[in-house]
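Bench log. Compound arrived from synthesis this morning; before running ITC I wanted a structural hypothesis for how magnesium ion sits in the protein. Inputs:
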Amino acid sequence: MPSETGATSIALTEVRRVYDAGARRVEALRGVTLTLRAGTATAIVGPSGSGKSTLLHICGALDRPTAGEVVVLGTNLTTASDATLTRFRRDHLGFIFQFFHLLPTLSALENVMLPARLARRGARAAETLATTLLARVGLADRVQHRPAQLSGGERQRVAIARALVLDPAIILADEPTGNLDRATGGQVLSLLFALAHERQRTVFIVTHDPEVARLCDRTVTLRDGQVAL
Ligand SMILES: Nc1ncnc2c1ncn2[C@@H]1O[C@H](COP(=O)(O)OP(=O)(O)O)[C@@H](O)[C@H]1O
Ligand SMILES: [Mg+2]
């Protein structure tokens, strides 16, 4: 069951983000207040340009708000140093992107091991973790393949395994099924939702697919940088 009582994992208060692109000033987020809870999968929907990716990046400590407050897992990201944000991302967040962002010269296994190695886990431990996760996403027989030798759905499952290798409390996904057919996309989502529910993780998915949004516990609609009521 979706939990309404899970601990607050992400709290945004009056978040604004203004891009100053030369003469053009873009107000991507115009006062967003939002709370997300552990154990819940939330979809963020809205037209192109409504601020979805900007919101996801701010929740994921990849970008800072121009004004307002962002507290994730009790850490105030608004005032944290760059070094703190880097460590915070590594320790607590998993990212999944539409275009996978896998390293082409590495095998599936090496791609999944990479965050664990960067976090200074030993090679054996990282390999064990990565192997287990690749099996969990149904790729036990693809561990030595490079991204170019995998289908789109397989690549996205590698990217999911990589996002999960350090067991993050929060998974942020920007159009994770945007390049997948519906059946494959459904499998990818089931995996993410199982994780949210079984392990009290917070899943935040940007999508413009209403079917994907329908499968989430909750939908937040953005319009012109504001939460639509
Ligand atoms: N780095 C940037 N510089 C200038 N404007 C940007 C930048 N990133 C996004 N924008 C603008 O901010 C608005 C919101 O963008 P975005 O968050 O990517 O929307 P969405 O993901 O909903 O399509 C858009 O008008 C976009 O053009
Ligand atoms: Mg976007």
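What the model suggests: The radius of gyration is 17 Å. Residues 182-199 form the longest helix (18 residues).
ITC booked for Thursday regardless.
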